[in-house]
Amino acid sequence: MRIITYNVNGIRAALNKDLAGWLKQVDADVICLQEIKATEDVVDKQPFFDMGYELYWYPAQKKGYSGVAIFTKKTPKKVFYGCGIEAYDLEGRIIRADFDDVSILSVYHPSGSSGDERQAFKFKWLNDFFDYAHELKKSIPNLIISGDYNICHKAIDIHNPKSNANTSGFLPEEREWMEKFINSGFIDTFRYFNEDPHHYTWWSYRAGARNKNLGWRIDYHMATTNMEQRLKRSVILPDAKHSDHCPVLLEID
User: What residues have CB less than 8 Å from 188, skipping those under 6 apart?
Assistant: First the structure.
């Protein structure tokens, strides 16, 4: 199974940059999208149907904001929308597809970069999401939680750790949460295969950051530890330029 996670920063804008053509070439079985920023009715879905995808869509209530989706060539046994907490579900942050032997989530963690109020919201989300993920693990041992976590875990995951030490997305408390989350039974699948520096998944639009590779690694496929033997490959795909993020591929048996 080939799984892509991609924060598209607006699916309509990404489609205008030939997202559909790129996905046809990649031929993933499951695509986890974040920040779709659109409801189904305003998007031309035919290119995805032509590729054989079933589309499961969970937009935010607020137009042009947030939202997640899962496109899959394998029919899920069941799809779950949201996590049951209204403040998060109104923002369209979690969708889960259950397959025979694995469940895949597309998740969009909040950003705290706009100010103290949203940073507080992010910290509350992180605590609630930790509990939610571990409650899921009790009944679904094979989990892959894919998406934009809006956190760089370690200094290796950000181009300038010193100057960003007090920046949302690299705050000590956020990094501690990521460490705790991984140590509680999850594998950062990209780092499982690659310990080299300078691999990022998001770049600011400012000052030519992407061309200079001045980025952050904030998009992940997290797999439960009991799936370790099924992990085959995980790579970042920086040449895909439909967004300020780039996609990450995970292959499992």
Answer: 153, 182, 220, 222
Q: How far apart are CA 26 and CA 152, in angstroms?
A: 26
Triad 112, 10, 5: Cα angle to 5°: 75
* Spatial distance between the Cα atoms of 86 and 50, rounded to a whole number of angstroms: 35
For the whole model, what pTM was predicted? 0.98
Burial status of residue 34 (CB atoms within 10 A of its CB: 0-12, 13-18, 19 or more): buried
Pick from 122, 59, 116, 72: which is nearest to 98 by CA?
72
E strands along 136-190, which residues? 143-148, 186-188
For residue 42, the model assigns a pLDDT of 96
Selecting among 148, 157, 188, 219, the annotated active-site residue is: 148
How many residues comprise the chain? 253
For residues 17 and 54, give the distance between their C-alpha atoms in angstroms, rounded to a whole number: 22
Among 132, 110, 107, residue whose Cα is nearest residue 222: 107
Residue 105 is given by DSSP the state: E
148 among known catalytic residues: yes
Q: pLDDT tens digits for 74-119? A: 999 999 999 999 999 999 999 999 999 999 999 999 999 999 999 9
Extended beta strands in 134-180, E state: 143-148
Q: What burial class does residue 156 get, using C-beta atoms within 10 Å of its C-beta: 0-12 exposed, 13-18 middle, 19+ buried?
A: middle
> Residue 231 in 3-state DSSP?
strand
